[in-house]
Amino acid sequence: MTAQIIDGKQVAAALRAELQEKVAQLKDKGIVPGLAVVLVGEDPASKSYVTAKEKACGNIGIYSEDIRLPAETPQAELMALVDKLNKDDKINGILVQLPLPKHLDEGEVLLAIDPAKDVDGFHPVNVGKMMLGQKAFLPCTPHGVIQLLLKSNVKIEGAEVVIVGRSNIVGKPLANMLIQKNATGNATVTVCHTRTKNLADHTLKADILIAAAGAPNMITADMVKAGAVVIDVGVNRVDDATKKRGYRLTGDVDFEAVKEKAGLITPVPGGVGPMTITMLLYNTVESAEKAAGLK
Ligand code: NDP
Question: Model confidence over 193-212: pLDDT tens digits?
């Protein structure tokens, strides 16, 4: 059986169309959601993410402010910028692109962002609220994964979910969201990492297998239960001399082999990636609505 492909681009496009409509309605009320995107340094992957985020904002009518700082920017300067953006009424969302250059204290920067403008959902206040099941900005990639499952009519409640990866931006929040006692939770979740013994023993039990390890093609067909839903969060650059840019993007899942065994599967690119940006737009619009007292 060949798996059905979950088309992240299509799901994202539908959600963005809804958001565009909402932004137009807000504009009629004199409200324009605004996102500030801060990039420190020249990391090529970060640069392309930031450009994609700004373009996506423009496409649906969100105002975006593009702030690019040199790699050697001191901590105090970045903190002053965050403070200024916190006070700027045009800005509803502040996104500081990670990772920051090594000399900067990421934790301190994230902590300085006003939780009401933390559209990445990384501030400890939002992380804590999410964990407690309270309303909060949800981190974009995990939220995007859940939306993909819902829009693909995958039943999360009662499912055995195995997540490979326990980072603060993907694995941990996703596990947390999936165990919440709510309509998008109620799953039984196992989180695996590099110290997990016999990884395949776990992955083979998964009704929903989510790979977020950053290890190209590590999930092979023999690690997947027949008919499972496989979500590939991984985005890895692997050398490819046949490509003009010298590399190609690949996920954490051996897509060609696993698609012959899974029931549903996301491709890379075109799976989770477009959803991440969409959920960022979603949070920015929601933040603008809250700031205007509409929510
Ligand atoms: P991190 O490097 O922060 O975390 C990776 C996690 O995977 C760690 O918990 C690590 O375990 C675990 N891991 C790595 N290799 C293995 C292995 N061989 N077996 C078991 N566990 C393993 O990565 P991120 O969470 O930031 O990102 C994960 C992937 O998702 C990356 O490819 C990244 O590019 C991609 N990504 C994609 C996004 C999108 O929008 N599509 C957004 C964000 C990330 P341990 O903790 O023990 O080290």
Answer: 999 999 999 999 999 999 99
